[in-house]
Design goal:
Number of helices: 9
Number of domains: 2
Number of strands: 15
CATH class of the largest domain: Alpha Beta
CATH topology of the largest domain: Spore Coat Polysaccharide Biosynthesis Protein SpsA, Chain A
Shape: globular
Order of helices and strands: EEEHEEHEHEEEHHEHHHEEHEEE
Structural class: alpha/beta
Length: 294
């Protein structure tokens, strides 16, 4: 979406989990890599990860930017302030996410961002019984106000919402979006993992159901589209009997071309594998010509 950015907060203490949630394995990737990748599929601006000073992070996509919290232990409002300041001037709106939302869907991100594009300062989902300020959208012009609150020791995210025009999106409003209702009917986008039990339960769920197919020369001698379960492009390629190499790339939803195996997938995705030579006619990462069999 134009004029939008993504901010992922990775610097929490993870005291209940007992280890960094950012680095937890998720179907061949990590929770942090997945969160960054999902938001980047929607936002056209920078993707920023906010970490604690000196915090070690798992591998991230090349375009991700890492910003250190000025001080450790001040909570998520400081992370929001740092993130909004980092993208101000480059985007009008930012989707802010915690690192531990493994079922976050691009349709959810898009719907929440749209609430701010329609004129609000904050798009705040009210889902699964709670407000979700760490799965919400904020105008980047709120950065100075957030920084002033942190300086004053007013560290609750609710302090930032006071005085703002907040579009509160209850479950009915969220499900009124037909795409979101179809692809994330339970609003699992806001399910987080705070403890080892939460993580085990979430990790035990099957990977997203996606459609894979081969295009062009890769389609010869193979049947048409297949429905498989895969949370990353690499896992989808393996299900197709392929490996992402310099000769094979993936087209996600006839749109984004990638050779990054950790690109996250969600329910409803279609992944088409094709020869790298077939994308010679692509412009800016979007397919403008496709081979036969696609």
């Amino acid at each position: 979406m134009p004029g939008t950015a993504g901010i992922v907060l990775a610097g929490g203490r993870s005291s209940r989990m007992g280890t960094s949630k950012a680095a937890l394995e998720w179907h061949g990737s990590t929770l942090l890599r997945r969160a960054v990748g999902i938001i980047s599929r929607v936002a056209d601006g920078p993707a920023v990860v906010i970490r604690a000073p000196g915090q070690s992070l798992p591998a991230l996509p090349a375009q991700a930017e890492v910003v250190d919290d000025p001080r450790e232990g001040l909570g998520p409002l400081q992370g929001v302030a740092a993130g909004l300041a980092a993208v101000a001037g480059r985007a009008e709106i930012a989707f802010v996410s915690s690192t531990d939302l493994p079922f976050l869907h691009p349709a959810f991100v898009r719907r929440v961002l749209r609430a701010v594009q329609d004129g609000a300062d904050v798009g705040l989902p009210l889902a699964r019984g709670y407000p979700q300020p760490l799965a919400a959208a904020y105008r980047t012009t709120l950065a100075p106000a957030a920084q002033r609150l942190v300086a004053a020791g007013r560290l609750r995210l609710t302090c930032l919402l006071t005085g703002c025009l907040v579009a509160r999106l209850d479950e009915a409003a969220l499900r009124a979006d037909p795409v979101l209702a179809a692809l994330d009917p339970g609003l699992d986008s806001v399910v987080n993992v705070n403890s080892p039990a939460d993580y085990r339960q979430a990790r035990a769920r099957p990977a997203p159901e996606v459609t894979i197919q081969r295009s062009g020369l890769l389609a010869e001698g193979h049947r048409g589209p297949q429905v498989v379960r895969a949370a990353t492009v690499a896992r989808a390629a393996a299900a197709a009997g392929l490996a992402l190499t310099g000769h094979v790339v993936a087209a996600l939803n006839e749109d984004q071309i990638t050779s990054d195996g950790q690109t996250p997938l969600v329910t409803g995705d279609t992944v088409c594998f094709l020869s790298a030579d077939a994308v010679a006619g692509a412009d800016g990462g979007r397919i403008v010509g496709r081979g036969h069999g696609s």
